[in-house]
Design brief:
- This protein is of the alpha/beta class.
- It has one domain: 3-Layer(aba) Sandwich (D-Maltodextrin-Binding Protein, domain 2), CATH 3.40.190.
- Helices cover 46% and strands 17% of the residues.
- The protein contains six helices and five strands; from the N terminus they run H-H-E-H-E-H-H-E-H-E-E.
- The chain has helices spanning 3-30, 39-42, 59-66, 89-99, 103-115, 129-138; strands at residues 45-50, 80-84, 124-126, 142-147, 155-161.
- The protein is globular and about 35 Å long.
- The chain starts with a helix and ends with a strand.
Length: 162
């Protein structure tokens, strides 16, 4: 396969991911505010994967994925990383608890990976954990996170962080 053909195929996968992102935008604008979760469930951050993904996810594996150190699932599927917007409680919890540093360090880490050519695609940013679960539901290879009340049965709970 020639280089131009490979780039066309790569573009097709990027287009499909972009389409999934756009498809999520319309329901988000119409979504009503969910009632506040109780303190017990609100404190559990759940990492979710596409329902077809049967890979067990450990805390170490999630850490490697979110640090950009692991880019493929064991079956060879490219990992599609989904994060909530900086400043959201979910994003703050993920960076602080899972990675052990803050949001600015997370942004610098991914900027450096992109600059060095080590990360072909930056994480997809969605406005909330609910949007992350909807994205993960539709995209094979995706991993995201949300507070427990935002997790739907359409995704697989891969790891729950207390």
């Amino acid at each position: 396969m020639t280089a131009p053909m490979r780039s066309r195929f790569a573009s097709l996968s990027m287009v499909s991911l972009l389409a999934a992102t756009v498809a999520l935008a319309a329901p988000l604008a119409l979504a009503q505010q969910a009632p506040a979760p109780d303190a017990a469930t609100a404190s559990r951050l759940v990492f979710v994967v596409n329902a077809a993904n049967r890979t067990p996810v450990t805390a170490d594996m999630a850490r490697e994925i979110y640090r950009g150190e692991r880019r493929y699932w064991p079956d060879g599927t490219r990992i599609v990383l989904v994060v909530t917007e900086p400043g959201t409680r979910e994003h703050q919890a993920m960076t602080r608890v899972l990675l052990g540093f803050g949001e600015p360090e997370f942004r610098r880490l991914w900027d450096a990976l992109r600059y060095q050519g080590e990360a072909p695609v930056p994480p997809y940013v969605v406005p909330s954990g609910g949007a992350a679960t909807r994205f993960v539901e539709r995209v094979a290879g995706a991993i995201g996170y949300a507070w427990e009340p935002d997790v739907t049965p359409a995704v697989r709970r891969a790891l729950t962080w207390q």
